[in-house]
Amino acid sequence: MNNQQPVVLDEPTAGSRRNLADTLRAENTGAILLLIGAVIALAWANSPWKDAYASLSDLRVGPAALHLDLTLAQWATDGLLAIFFLVVGLELKREIVDGQLRRPSTAIVPILAAVGGMAVPALVYTLTNLQPGGEAHGWAIPAATDIAFAVAVLTICGRGLPTALRVFLLTLAVVDDLLGIVVIALFYSDGLDMLMLGGALVAIGIFGVVVRRRGGAPWWLLVPLGVVAWGLMHASGVHATIAGVLLGFTVPALARTGEPVSLAERYEHVWRPVSAGLAVPVFALFAAGVALDPAAISAAASTPAAQGVFLGLVLGKPLGIVAATWLLVTLTKARLDESMRWGDVVAVACVGGIGFTVALLIAELSFPAGAASADAAKAAVLLGSLTAAALGGTLLAFRSRALRRRTTQDAQAEAQSDATSAA
Predict the structure, then answer these.
(1) How far is the C-alpha of 117 from the C-alpha of 145, rounded, in Å?
(2) Where do the domains of the chain lie, and which CATH numbers do they carry?
(3) Which contiguous run of DSSP H or E holds residue 61?
(4) Residue 246's closest CA among 164, 185, 323?
(5) What pLDDT, in 10s, does the model give residues 159-169?
(6) Could you say which of 110, 179, 257, 351 has the lowest number of CB atoms within 10 Å?
(7) 96, exposed or middle or buried, with CB in 10 Å at 0-12, 13-18, 19+?
(8) Selection from 242, 243, 251, 240 nearest residue 209 by Cα
(9) How far apart are CA 265 and CA 87, in angstroms?
């Protein structure tokens, strides 16, 4: 008789782990997991067990002596999200050194489109909050674009559209992230401790020297250096996620002799699954838990901060992106890619209104925890992002169908012309 116990869930093989990591690297997967985290948070925060959600979010862990006795929500925002920004920093470094941002002549249109797409939503928010009860602090909330969600919507709804459109959106979102990082560093840092900041910069500098060793330094050296840099940055008063960006910037983005790919690409390949599969979904789980019952929605709708965020994302973003692009093309020698049409730009501009990750982060930094304006702004980020996704996705699907129809008609006309010539 075989007494061996049945295996319910065996240790995954190396191939299975690689497949899982590759799945997590896909843009669609990251966006789906982010959405799942947000949906769980919303369902939990609006359920009979909402007190358990609040207790979990407020649970403090960590050593107080090192200024790290943080709530779980703060660990998600300040700690795990630093991994997301590390990946963003690596991506930005590659784009600046060897990508679309390397040649200003190629990148100038989406770069200025990104600037317009941040300035106009901030202006819309500010004007909306000039009324009594307005909250000026949240002006940067609708200025952010979520790369993962925006690219996922384009991938799903814009099949067959020109590749240049994806490049346009990626460049726009990358520049948007870079400007968002600058905004967080300049306007959302509190009580700078220059000694701690200097220590953080020294740790980042050492990391940058060590990581340039051929083949890369061992993980057991780089990870502790990164953690020290993060901890010192957190203690300095600068938002700790900035440490992730700066660490990413120090990694070489060009492949050296004998290396198949650059270190930046290798490290992005390693850390993207951690970011997409853990950091961002857990952040969404703690950041998106706002009340969305009819009374809360009604209260949010009457809050100037929420009105400014929603209008900034849904109207300000596309208006700013399209206006900046049109002015640049009209007033200078800059041109859109030959394969793109203005209808494509409008559709992508609407998708740019998907704020989510960075917008939720800035909403958390803009208002005191638990403040009515904070919850209202978060609710507006969620509703505004979903509205922008629905509007942009619909326009992209329409453009995709129109392109396929035009392609089919051209093919039929060419076939008919060939048949006539043969006759």
Answers:
(1) 9
(2) 25-188+239-407 (1.20.1530.10)
(3) strand 60-61
(4) 185
(5) 788 877 877 88
(6) 257
(7) middle
(8) 251
(9) 10
